[in-house]
């Protein structure tokens, strides 16, 4: 292993400040939720309200979508980012969205609190170097063909470039078995968690591709020590323009949020949340 800064021996455990008082890496469990793609004012409005009222800490939504086919919905671009930004401000939630290319960075910096580097870009080293310069918090997804060491070395680019506000995200890898969309590597997540000083979250949506498996795998991630989850939620999954089969309905998301405290409690942890305003003021 040639990564050094990302390892526990490389310094203190990293706490990532996502905005609106939400932090990752302090032990509490953080839930990021929202639609795969921002589709319309109405869809994002409903999805945002659904996740906020059920206790999500961060709002997700894709505006630039890395689709396998060029003929699939590619996202609303800047319009989507604007809508996401407005929802974040209105609901007082930090927002996260994927940046696919260096050229999109100025726009992203204007509208999002947290940058997401997708699985397909994990080893886009020039993108990682530029993101490092921004110092903006970043969720670094594991490439579906990347080893654990390659994933940690990709994070090393960000830390080496001066940005330690990095969250690692296990989102499934491609294996010999194609029954599910991907293979969720929970043991790999736990291995990285043991060795790295960065927070590690799990995406049970892309790692399974199957709605009924998302809640159980999110709970398994919590039990296995993940710092949080990134989950796709859609007000009407059957009409989704992207990733409908894996999207949770608001009701299923609600049942996950109700079950998480018991699973976290069994390992001495709890759901995170924004710091009370009094505590924030007192720290200043
Ligand atoms: C996503 O989160 O919307 C996404 C495209 O994920 P991944 O990069 O893991 O495929
Ligand atoms: Mn998706």
Short summary of the structure?
Helices cover 37% and strands 14% of the residues. It is globular.
How many E strands?
Answer: 10
CATH architecture: Alpha-Beta Barrel
CATH fold-level label: TIM Barrel
| Count of helical stretches | 9
Ligand set: phosphoenolpyruvate, manganese (II) ion
Give the full name of the CATH homologous superfamily.
Aldolase class I
Q: What is the CATH C-level name? A: Alpha Beta
H/E element order: EEEHEHEHEHEHEHEHEHH
CA-atom Rg in angstroms: 17 Å
Percentage beta strand:
5-15%
Helix/strand-derived category reads alpha/beta
Write the layout of secondary structure elements.
Layout: E1 16-19, E2 22-24, E3 30-34, H1 41-53, E4 58-60, H2 78-91, E5 95-98, H3 105-111, E6 114-117, H4 125-134, E7 138-141, H5 148-160, E8 166-170, H6 186-195, E9 200-202, H7 211-223, E10 228-232, H8 250-266, H9 277-283
Helix pairs in contact: 1-2, 4-5, 7-8
